[in-house]
């Protein structure tokens, strides 16, 4: 078990004292990051590296908002001696320095040390997301360097500068090199689970870091809920053969087999740290989240003392092991769970928030889920012009040339849009757009939709749920931002489709998300 763990920021701040609370660092409001570092002799090697790869001037841009992690000369010298084959910064190839430094820089926000917890909200300049935490024994904050590696601890923090904030480290960060599959296959405690991954033919996918969509290469992140050999043994499963037999035998590589579906249920095609898995919709303490399984979602409940997954399953419910969560890889996260995590017989009747843009393919958009603030301009990316085919989204217009479908990025109404993005379309006078909704828990729901905010050009649509009309035409204009479809009872767990057909007038339509709010019967 890892001694150092990341714990939820809310619990941390409520129960732990900050060791730096009495230490105040001066704010150098008129100095940018580069100039300040250049004025500190103990960071001369770091500045030399910045200059060697032409990053020094970038760190002096007046309009930048950077979060920079840096290490002093002693730490850099130790890093060179213990982690590289070079005796000096001058010997290091420029490309290695460039990657190392970019791994230490986050652009777009000044992140205070109090917010350095779990997966950080923005990536580094290399596209990696850092994972932060605190040592429960010393209360020292750190950045995780990966499985079986010592983290880099903050020495000084919150050095506020005109274009960024600096946090100094006791040693440089080590860029993650292990894939999710490396972590699982390399841990002897996960031998049965790893064997099942291989038998199902999923190892290569878990190992991949990049994927090409059209002409764009994206990071292909994954999240895995891994089961340890100890948990398997507690259920009488002592080997891969036992696991196959437990699921009734057959070919594990058959995508319809129970074992294959069991494995998919433990995998997500997103970068979901513990924070993402346990952040509930506003006002709720329960929710449904989704893995790669198309059969079942995962029910999540905040009991007040713990976060339980599939609590409705009784003895088959599970939790994430506190000391084995947020294990970072170069292409995702591994979380160890304390039970098998079998597909439950039924999903709990919990709230579901579904976004059409929450799909891997949208990552090909250059400004996908970029942060937006009030006053920032809207951006659009045409799915048709760029040939971006997104599974589960279909449309038709007559004539075909009238069809417009795009990824819309905009700050809307005090942050109404999650991630400031939405799916927009205009089908002219005749046409429709249809989206697939994942399997929903059975029960009665009120359906609400966060619609477009374009007052000048908003159109109308008739909305069909599984080919059944949901009332009259709906406006997609300002002032009608949250539309309710009323209540509907779902008698079984299954996937659904929602179709938006052109109403009495054409025009721009769009929505950010659909929320399925449980109604107590």
* Gross geometry: globular
What is the overall number of helices? Answer: 12
- The helical percent reads 10-25%
Question: Distance between termini?
Answer: 44 Å
Low-confidence stretches: 1-26
The overall strand count is: 29
Report what the structure shows:
A seven-stranded mixed beta sheet has the order 2-1-7-6-5-4-3. By secondary structure, the protein is α+β, with helices and mostly antiparallel strands. Helix content is 17%, strand content 29%. The chain is built from twelve helices and 29 strands. Strand 5 and strand 6 form a beta hairpin.
Q: Features of this protein?
A:
disordered N terminus, alpha+beta, 521 residues, seven-stranded mixed β-sheet, 29 strands, 12 helices, seven-stranded antiparallel β-sheet
Could you outline the blueprint of secondary structure elements for this entry?
Elements lengths: L8 H7 L17 H6 L5 H9 L13 E6 L1 H11 L10 H9 L2 E3 L10 E2 L11 E4 L6 E3 L8 E10 L2 E6 L10 H6 L5 H9 L3 H5 L2 E4 L2 E4 L2 E6 L1 H6 L5 H7 L11 H8 L1 E2 L5 H4 L8 E4 L8 E5 L4 E3 L17 E3 L2 E6 L14 E3 L24 E4 L10 E5 L6 E6 L11 E6 L4 E10 L2 E9 L8 E6 L2 E2 L4 E2 L6 E9 L3 E9 L6 E10 L3
